[in-house]
Amino acid sequence: QVQLVESGGGLVQAGGSLRLSCAASRSTFSRYAMGWFRQAPGKEREFVAAIRWSTAVTYYTDSVKGRFTISKDNAKNTVYLQMNNLKPEDTAVYYCAATKFFVSDYDPRSGASYDFWGQGTQVTVSS
Distance between CA atoms of 127 and 113, rounded to whole angstroms? Predict the structure, then answer.
């Protein structure tokens, strides 16, 4: 079993920046892709960004394009989400997710594509 541990959340003013990190507990963990999702109070979980591990192809939801960047560090077995120009509507619990090594019909925007999830980290953006 793989554990994903997120860090980097916090309280920031609108226009500020945060960087979220997600580390996999097993250094030998092979995955097809990793992603970030978020859930605001009273709302459903939504896709934020994803990255294919071998090719580094990235995906973003429209509302964060140009503001958020997903990246990875293979040596540290970690995926990052750099969030710039944060807005109050970005306030949510952010979850890291990872697939297994083999995935058929991978849909980066679907939570069903992912097999492992972190515990979540709170991001609060004040206006």
Answer: 34
